[in-house]
Description:
Two copies of one chain form a homodimer.
Chain A: H1 9-28, E1 33-35, H2 42-46, E2 61-62, E3 65-66, H3 77-87, E4 94-96, H4 101-114, E5 131-136, H5 140-148, E6 152-159, E7 162-163, H6 165-171, E8 177-182, H7 196-203, E9 213-217, H8 235-241, E10 248-253, E11 265-269, H9 271-281, H10 290-300, H11 303-331, E12 338-340, E13 349-353, H12 358-367, E14 370-372, E15 389-392, H13 399-423
Parallel strand pairs in A: 1-14, 5-6, 5-8, 8-9, 9-10
Antiparallel strand pairs in A: 2-3, 4-11, 6-7, 10-11, 12-13, 13-15
Amino acid sequence: MKQLSEMTSGELKEFYDAALKEYEACKAKGLDLNMARGKPSKAQLELSNELLTIIDPANCTMDGIDARNYGTLEGLPSCRKLFAEILDVDVEEVFVGGSASLNLMYDVIAKAFTHGLLHSEKPWAKLDKVKFLCPVPGYDRHFTVCQSFGIEMINVPMTENGPDMDAVEELVKDKDVKGMWCVPKYSNPEGIVYGMDTIRRIASLRPAAPDFLLMWDNAYCIHEFDGEYLPFPDILTLCRENGNADMVYEFASTSKITFPGAGVACFATSRANMDYMKKLLNAEIISYDKLNQLRHVLFLKDKAGVIEHMKKHAAIMKPKFDAVITSLDENIAPLGIASYNRPKGGYFVSLDVMDGCAKRVHALMKEAGVVMTGPGATFPYGKDPNDRNLRIAPSFPTKEELEQAMQVLCACIKLAAAEKLLAK
Amino acid sequence: MKQLSEMTSGELKEFYDAALKEYEACKAKGLDLNMARGKPSKAQLELSNELLTIIDPANCTMDGIDARNYGTLEGLPSCRKLFAEILDVDVEEVFVGGSASLNLMYDVIAKAFTHGLLHSEKPWAKLDKVKFLCPVPGYDRHFTVCQSFGIEMINVPMTENGPDMDAVEELVKDKDVKGMWCVPKYSNPEGIVYGMDTIRRIASLRPAAPDFLLMWDNAYCIHEFDGEYLPFPDILTLCRENGNADMVYEFASTSKITFPGAGVACFATSRANMDYMKKLLNAEIISYDKLNQLRHVLFLKDKAGVIEHMKKHAAIMKPKFDAVITSLDENIAPLGIASYNRPKGGYFVSLDVMDGCAKRVHALMKEAGVVMTGPGATFPYGKDPNDRNLRIAPSFPTKEELEQAMQVLCACIKLAAAEKLLAK
């Protein structure tokens, strides 16, 4: 195959005709597929069905606590221990909440606005401006939280080792820059694992804001689908060693370990932050669902148990990711009209089509019955400055559906590229 | 028995000596009892154990929705329907959240501060002053929420039919008065059921604040322990009929129906509020725990099922309340040194000892090994202006423990009253 940029206009016209024909054929199939969200498949849900009946009604007590009743705001000790093992932090640094880490993330930021954080001079609601650094492409729900609070988002380019730290170090000199989002392992959507040097530079930042908030969303901390579990550094310790003990809140959940809608989520942070936040949380809730915490402890047992369990997810996920990459390798790579990553964990393949073509590809896909994450969703305010990034979420469809969807996607990428080059 | 106020000083001295002796005898028993919180007993928890294993792993789908996966922010339709039946509102008016109604209440107020409510001119965080009306005595956790947000709380006296509406109607003329707490059925702590006239006057308030927020905490909507289920009016309809459709958020939960730590909570509000709030909640969470919603639907089935189930609670609760009332009737009433209510539902007996004696009684109790809710807890800022109200929570101890605790309490009430009268 010839790269499109090297084609003569005649060849390009011919290519366009073929792509259009291919696309029309796809459309004729009348598909109805969805690869919009990082939603586990039914097969993955089945892996945790044992959770549903794992509590013996005759024994609802764990750590001397009756999990059915009120109490223990910070979570069941055994469940805190489970997360402490996974995140390689101390038990005392872990707060186990409800079913959603997004909820905990939102809550920390909400409290920064209404009450201020531990080192805030005043609640952020009293400030004229609050800015956040957003490595891009990134997770749309992080951006939605910021947007909901009127936080000004500043794009920071991602490198293959994580956020561009030269840019970050410069930007945090602005005292209005109050925080930064990070998905350090298998970043959403690129699947990048932050390099050790990048992580060290993050932990040793010297932000002008005394209450700078590092939102360390370790959503995919244990979510390898290709190869062995990859250990990662404990950001709490690194921050503490660099004089930034209270700068970071780390988040994790079992949403993509057990049940997305009914897992257990946690944050981990310094003891000082924990004391501060527990006082505020005490006004909000008596205690989170400890029975669900108990279910997870009984089912997952410990970190080794989680890693073992994640291998079952991997066995389902890897063939799907392989299908995506193979399809792109075979149909798109030789044409030089897109680039994409080859993640070994997480939930996404990040695809950069030709500049100015992402919206078009998305619209073509939709017309052919395949829903993808909205173009621009991976950028603050939904604005991809190059209109090129698309997020592929292979988990939910079956492998067969995914192969069909990828066929359509390849046809759309080709068609949009040819349209673009012919219009020049 | 003679009333203390009619005793000669000699009789009083004699009474004091006897009370002291009785108290010392209680103390010598070395008790370790807790009637501080409205916490269901172990026997009550056992009533819902079937919940724990009620989901058939082969069928996690309800209303066409796989309860294990992400989605359906507003809750499982069947669970919304269950609450709609209980509260006598429309399904579309119900939002089912996580395990705690307190969490939802806090969240509505938090959003008033960060974003404003539907009819707010600006977020409350931008206002110099926010005031709330607090019928007293009331629920300490309501007051804690207010205090956490720096809301100025204004005491409103309770009458036997609910809040003093003359006072309320006057107070809402102040535009800084942004809301009011109500526990309309079996109020915490007095067990008062608001009268229909009071409810109508509340629903037809004309507050100066366009975003006045009626916090209708229907915590004990179906919690009779004595006699048949008492129907109550739908506040949403009443507010709508009086041109106040968007003024009210009603809250309920299964915390005292199934498991306190792992129930399901909801709010009910106008469709306009629902649309507004759902947009804000969408930034906060993808969806709440639908598996737990499913468990509750399967276990409780419908309103009739809940009423049936509550009779089992009543069978455990009534003997305990009877023990409290009998003890007070026999030992305290003839002395004219305390007054108390005789609730038919809810979780508390509200006890007014002699003015200036509540703290003393509480301290004496503690010294004798019985923990009660802190004196003043039933008032904003923990300040009971008459230092007389104590909340008795009979649910958690066994009947035998409760009888012991009441013996101590009666001794303490007598001792404190005698001390007080002798000191005059």
